[in-house]
């Protein structure tokens, strides 16, 4: 979803959804590596959700930063259950469908952004405006 009016640099965003949790977006500065994934996503965002939901199972894909030893140790140490992820199976992920819904709503009701920061603001507004029932339906459909 790149809708800049000029040649502004791309931004990387991590998005998380949960059946009982509000959705969250995290802007990733630079390239996502395993240390960045732990420090900017897993510890501050994921762990704050999961500590209140003890039976939660986390679903991640097989992207390189997600499968490193340090990330696996993070999940093991905090006793966070992981949903098995078959190779090349994006259809099993509710977040993939969330991305499509978000792209359609963002394109439909948002003017083009002139900076990456403005794009992120528009995206966050679209993301948080989605009714939670939409998100819950994504889990039921997968």
TrEMBL record:
InterPro entries named in the record: RNaseH_sf (IPR036397)
Top-level taxon: Eukaryota
GO MF, any single term: nucleic acid binding
Protein name, entry field: Transposable element Tcb1 transposase
Gene that encodes it: X975_12333
């Amino acid at each position: 979803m790149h809708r800049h009016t000029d040649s502004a640099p791309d931004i990387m965003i991590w998005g998380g959804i949960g059946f009982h949790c509000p959705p969250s977006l995290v802007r990733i500065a630079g390239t996502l590596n395993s240390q960045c994934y732990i420090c900017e996503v897993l510890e501050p965002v994921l762990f704050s959700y999961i500590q209140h939901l003890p039976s939660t199972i986390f679903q991640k894909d097989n992207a390189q930063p997600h499968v490193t030893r340090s990330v696996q140790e993070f999940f093991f140490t905090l006793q966070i259950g992981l949903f098995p992820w078959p190779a090349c199976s994006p259809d099993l992920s509710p977040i993939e469908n969330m991305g499509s819904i978000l792209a359609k709503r963002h394109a439909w009701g948002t003017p083009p952004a002139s900076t990456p920061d403005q794009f992120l603001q528009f995206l966050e507004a679209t993301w948080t405006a989605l009714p939670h029932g939409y998100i819950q339906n994504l889990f039921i459909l997968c």
